């Protein structure tokens, strides 16, 4: 395949995006909005912003490419981890995360556990992790002193890539990663009953793996684990691909729904019953209500109710 054929193949790949992302991409007359989107200054979801970064990173505009590179480097690790666990994210975006952030932010193990990650990419991550555990310290030192390898980052400007340096692996992180990978491999040979037991009694790594299990009995068992944290519950509630049974179980836990962030995530979740979502809106701040009004990803009923609540607040002033 020659270079022109390769470019045609690349251009033929299309991602389904929201109407707002499409408008920003097409907004040639509104460059400021494009820069704001890249810098994270617009009310976009993490998935929408990452989609834009992938697009602008491949574009012909040098300034946008450089802004994109900086934005990708500064993208918060916690938000990257949430994206890595989102099974509703497009496989090509998951593949981009795997290539762009390989070995960083603990994403590898989360991506491997994501059922939407293409098998070939999962195989590459597993192979790389296995290789890392076998590498001698001298090999890692030689690599770090000899300059950065070609990372083959998809969708990111490769110009001036020699100025970037790779991070020295943390031995503690490697141990944790290896342990997590072995657990992932174990799940491939476990029955439903064994998975349920691991979900109910296992540590955070087990919970992170099994919450994405296709069997609802297994994923639901994670929420019955006494060691699960509110931070984990928030991540589950914030994930738009979380199934209705998990949402139901979260709603049944009085302690969890006292948490403001969890309430807000439930209001915005498409599988939260409208009655619950409307009731939780009563405690939302004015700022969050305004964000709901501007959102294009939630039910029109929620949007209209947020608008009515804001009007009522204005009248009381």
Task: Please count the beta strands (DSSP E, at least 2 residues each).
Answer: 0
Spans with pLDDT under 50 lasting ≥5 residues? Answer: 1-13, 136-180
Largest sheet: none
SSE ordering? HHHHHHHHHHHHHHHHHHHH
How many domains in all? 3
Give me the number of helical elements.
Answer: 20
Strand-pairing-aware structural class: mainly alpha
Mean pLDDT: 79
Work out the helicity level: 55-70%
Question: What labels would you give this structure?
Answer:
mainly alpha, 317 residues, disordered N terminus, flat
Structural overview:
With 317 residues, this protein is mostly helical. It folds into 3 domains: 18-72, no CATH class; 76-136 and 172-189, no CATH class; 229-317. It has helices at 3-12, 19-26, 31-39, 46-57, 62-74, 77-85, 91-100, 107-113, 119-134, 137-145, 171-187, 192-201, 204-210, 216-222, 230-238, 244-252, 260-268, 274-280, 286-294, 300-316. The protein starts with a helix and ends with a helix. Mean pLDDT is 79; it is low at 1-13 and 136-180.
What does the secondary structure layout of this molecule look like, with pairings?
Blueprint lengths: L2 H10 L6 H8 L4 H9 L6 H12 L4 H13 L2 H9 L5 H10 L6 H7 L5 H16 L2 H9 L25 H17 L4 H10 L2 H7 L5 H7 L7 H9 L5 H9 L7 H9 L5 H7 L5 H9 L5 H17 L1
Helix pairs in contact: 3-5, 4-5, 6-8, 8-9, 8-11, 9-11, 11-13, 12-14, 15-17, 17-18, 19-20
């Amino acid at each position: 395949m020659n270079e022109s054929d390769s470019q045609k193949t690349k251009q033929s790949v299309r991602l389904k995006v929201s109407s707002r992302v499409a408008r920003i991409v097409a907004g040639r007359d509104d460059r400021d909005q494009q820069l704001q989107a890249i810098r994270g200054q617009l009310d976009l979801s993490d998935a929408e912003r990452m989609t834009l970064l992938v697009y602008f990173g491949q574009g012909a505009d040098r300034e946008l490419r450089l802004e994109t590179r900086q934005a990708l480097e500064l993208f918060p690790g916690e938000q990257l981890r949430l994206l890595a666990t989102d099974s509703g994210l497009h496989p090509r975006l998951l593949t981009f995360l795997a290539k762009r952030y390989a070995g960083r932010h603990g994403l590898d193990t989360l991506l491997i556990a994501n059922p939407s990650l293409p098998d070939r990419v999962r195989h590459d991550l597993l192979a790389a992790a296995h290789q890392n555990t076998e590498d001698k310290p001298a090999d890692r030192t030689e690599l770090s002193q000899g300059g950065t390898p070609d990372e083959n980052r998809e969708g990111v400007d490769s110009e001036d890539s020699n100025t970037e340096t790779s991070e020295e692996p943390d031995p503690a992180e490697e141990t944790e990663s290896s342990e997590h990978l072995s657990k992932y491999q174990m799940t491939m040979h476990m029955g439903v009953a064994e998975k349920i037991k691991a979900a109910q009694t296992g540590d955070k790594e087990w919970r992170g793996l099994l919450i994405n299990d296709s069997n609802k009995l297994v994923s639901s068992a994670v929420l019955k684990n006494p060691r699960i944290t509110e931070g984990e519950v928030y991540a589950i509630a914030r994930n738009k691909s979380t199934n209705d049974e998990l949402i139901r179980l979260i709603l049944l836990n009085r302690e969890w729904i006292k948490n403001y962030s969890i309430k807000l995530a439930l209001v915005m979740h498409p599988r939260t019953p409208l009655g619950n979502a409307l009731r939780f809106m009563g405690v939302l701040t004015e700022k969050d209500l305004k964000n709901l009004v501007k959102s294009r990803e939630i039910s029109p009923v929620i949007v209209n109710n947020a608008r009515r609540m804001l009007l009522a607040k204005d009248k009381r002033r």
